Amino acid sequence: MGDTHVRVGLVAGDGGTAIWPLLIGVNRAKEYLMRGRVITGKQAAEAGIANHAVPADKVMEEALKIAEELNALPPLAVQWSKVSAKRDSEATVQPGF
Q1: pTM
Q2: Which of 3, 18, 50, 69 could form an SS bridge with 44, CB 3.0 to 4.6 Å?
């Protein structure tokens, strides 16, 4: 995965310049965005860009495991935690758009 806009002469876009620094810090984000590097899923997970990296044949199994875990939790707590995190992160990145 990667944001390769710079490889074709474009400024990094699609929110990458706002989201990547939040996920991995400004310095690391600038390196990935300015170099247009493509990294593996494992590297993305290690960097904090992705939450998980699993073999392709295990993706559905892992996704279902996570879904079942979330489904077993109090639904309103899960739902409002998701809403709050999304709202707060959107408020942070909105000026950049």
Answers
A1: 0.72
A2: 50
